[in-house]
């Protein structure tokens, strides 16, 4: 790069008739460099900018934000990194602003924030739990209009983990809660909830007897948020926002429940890399969480009884937690109940009357295994073989004209169409009406009035 003084000398010598080679030898520069400055291809005092690594991804980002103007930049950054983008997040967001990729949204542009306060949380003191209802889940999940994600976040460090559940009843809450605790590596001394009906009575805020047993089993205290105080558990609310925007918003329709669970787990681990400043020292969420003194949890979950309804497939199987379990033959399409007591290795399948018709060992969650009972296999094969026949199939290329009975029925139909009505004629006996009419022809004489006394 030429300095401003060298650029001035080069232009002056050029006007004096010097050749480019002579100017290059005089200034000790390359001829191509001198020619570029004299032709105005390079501005003196400015370095040539390297090629922008964001340029190949501009169109993809523009299309993604045109489809979803409120897509988080962090979510879009995760996507372009998988596509080969090697720049940093700050460089990526600066490029989004420079190229003006995100479309303008007037209703959101006028939104304003509100005052917030930071609540101090000692390490290992509190975990905040909250249900996140996820709209329009894939139809193959069979969970209805919403999927349900239980999110648990450590109030001090901000580390969070989540677990998908079919519904928000008490057994599914206990199952998801235990899974979140095991992903966190332990439990804090207190749990905080909003006014969930499975945890407390909404009117008074007092915890239920059933959930009191769960709290005593894990050895923790329970705190219930006051009504209309969402900021009191702002840590988990923010994690709900992150899970909805960075994960659920981009979940495709073909993913299974287990694949979606793997996606949210990866996001939670990735967010442990968020940077924090504590006491003037730079650290990360993962380092803060690793230093939190969490309590150990029992080796098995609280023994709540989980019951879900399932439909038997044509192969005599029912699906439960990503695995398939066999039932006796003759029940395809029937609605049965899968019963599992948390902490046990047995899965029972019962009828609507609670009669147990099958019991299997429980396969690991999401393993995709098919567990069959030997008796069920033999009975199913026998039933299928019995349905087979050794008779030759019916011949299709034969001549079979209408029979005499069919022709007679056809004649009846033609006669009805000829009369114009398909209804049979109704015959009414009018003798009764004639007798009544004959009696009405004579008027009875009026009764004589009695003489007054």
UniProtKB/TrEMBL annotation:
Q: Which InterPro entries does the entry mention?
A: Integrase_cat-core, IstA-like_C
At the top level of its lineage, which domain of life is listed? Bacteria
Q: Which residues form the Integrase catalytic domain?
A: 119-301
Region Disordered, annotated ranges: 393-421
Which PANTHER family would you find in this protein's record? INTEGRASE PROTEIN (PTHR35004:SF7), TRANSPOSASE RV3428C-RELATED (PTHR35004)
Q: What protein name is recorded for this chain? A: DDE-type integrase/transposase/recombinase
């Amino acid at each position: 790069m030429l300095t401003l003084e060298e650029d001035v000398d080069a232009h002056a010598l050029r006007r004096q008739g010097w050749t480019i080679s002579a100017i290059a030898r005089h200034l000790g520069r390359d001829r191509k460099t001198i020619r570029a400055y004299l032709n105005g291809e390079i501005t003196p005092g400015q370095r040539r900018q390297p090629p922008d690594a964001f340029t190949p991804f501009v169109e993809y980002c523009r299309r993604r934000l045109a489809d979803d103007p409120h897509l988080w930049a962090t979510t879009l950054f995760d996507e372009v990194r998988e596509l080969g983008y090697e720049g940093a997040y700050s460089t990526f967001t600066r490029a989004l602003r420079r190229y003006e990729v995100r479309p303008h949204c007037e209703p959101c542009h006028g939104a304003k924030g509100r005052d917030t306060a930071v609540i101090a949380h000692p390490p290992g003191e509190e975990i905040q739990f909250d249900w996140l209802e996820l709209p329009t889940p894939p139809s193959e999940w069979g969970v209805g209009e919403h999927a349900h994600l239980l999110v648990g976040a450590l109030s001090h460090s901000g580390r969070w983990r989540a677990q998908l559940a079919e519904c928000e009843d008490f057994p599914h809450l206990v199952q998801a809660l235990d899974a979140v605790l095991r992903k966190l590596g332990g439990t804090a001394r207190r749990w905080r909830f909003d006014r969930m009906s499975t945890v407390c009575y909404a009117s008074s805020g007092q915890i239920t007897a059933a959930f009191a047993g769960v709290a005593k089993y894990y050895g923790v205290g329970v705190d219930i948020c006051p009504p209309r105080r969402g900021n009191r558990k702002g840590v988990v609310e923010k994690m709900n926002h992150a899970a909805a925007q960075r994960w659920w918003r981009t979940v495709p329709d073909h993913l299974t429940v287990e694949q979606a669970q793997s996606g949210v787990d990866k996001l939670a681990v990735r967010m442990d890399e968020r940077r924090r400043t504590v006491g003037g020292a730079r650290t990360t969420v993962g380092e803060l969480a690793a230093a939190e003194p969490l309590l150990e949890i029992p080796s098995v979950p609280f023994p709540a009884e989980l019951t879900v309804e399932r439909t038997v497939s044509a192969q005599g199987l029912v699906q439960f937690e990503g695995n398939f379990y066999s039932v006796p033959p003759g029940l395809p399409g029937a609605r049965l109940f899968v019963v599992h007591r948390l902490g046990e290795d047995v899965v029972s399948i019962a009828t609507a009357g609670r009669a147990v018709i099958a019991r299997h060992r429980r396969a690991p969650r999401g393993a995709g295994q098919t567990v069959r009972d030997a008796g069920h296999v033999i009975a199913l094969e026998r039933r299928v073989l019995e349905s087979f026949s050794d008779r030759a199939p019916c011949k299709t290329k034969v001549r079979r004209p209408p029979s005499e009975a069919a022709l007679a029925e056809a004649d009846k139909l033609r006669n009805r169409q000829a009369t114009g009505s398909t209804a049979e004629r109704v015959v009414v006996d009018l003798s009764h009406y004639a007798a009544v009419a004959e009696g009405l022809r004579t008027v009875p004489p009026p009764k004589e009035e009695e003489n007054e006394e």
